[in-house]
Amino acid sequence: MELSHRIENNICIISINGQITKDESPNIQEKLLSIVEQENYRGNIINLENVPTIDSSGIGVIVSIFRACQTHDVKLLLCRLNQKVTSVFELIELDKIIPIYPTEKKALASFKE
After folding, report:
1. Which domains does the chain carry?
2. Bigger pLDDT: 105 or 113?
3. Using CA atoms, how far apart are residues 31 and 89, in angstroms rounded to an integer?
4. How many other C-beta atoms are found inside a 10 Å radius of the C-beta of residue 75?
5. What is the rounded average pLDDT of the residues 86-100?
6. 43/75 Cα distance (integer angstroms)
């Protein structure tokens, strides 16, 4: 699992490469929290383009990051989910709570609205 981030217009864009499952979740959560809590960004986007699978532990990580962002009054968006990962979010209706965008560009544009 690899994680990288960059800043664009004071929005942190985080890319995850690899599955988000029970074995990887603690490490991913620690890294994500350190990124979203280190600065006062206008928002955070997690790009899941290179995440082939996510399990309940991975969903717990995303919810934890969402709550951390809410605590700091910062938006969290997700983008580029594959169909398998999208299905998991839809099944538990998390897509109704955390906005999901088809592209990074559309997620970024939503901050201008």
Report:
1. 2-104 (3.30.750.24)
2. 105
3. 22
4. 18
5. 97
6. 5
CB atoms within 10 A of CB 36: 23
Rounded to 5 degrees, φ, ψ at 58 are: -65, -40
User: What pLDDT sits at residue 113?
Assistant: 66
The dihedral built from the CA positions of residue 38, 74, 77 and 113, taken in this order, carries a sign that is negative
Whole-structure pTM value = 0.94
| Amino acid, single-letter form, for residue 105 | K
In whole angstroms, how large is the CA radius of gyration of the chain?
13
Q: How far is the C-alpha of 102 from the C-alpha of 109, rounded, in Å?
A: 12
Confidence of residue 109 (pLDDT cuts 50, 70, 90): very high
Return the axis-axis angle of helices 25-38 and 56-71, rounded to nearest 10°. Answer: 10
Largest interatomic CA distance in the chain: 38
pLDDT digits (tens, 9 = 90+) for 54-83: 999 999 999 999 999 999 899 999 999 999
**Residue whose entry in the numeric block shows the structure tokens 């074995």:** 23
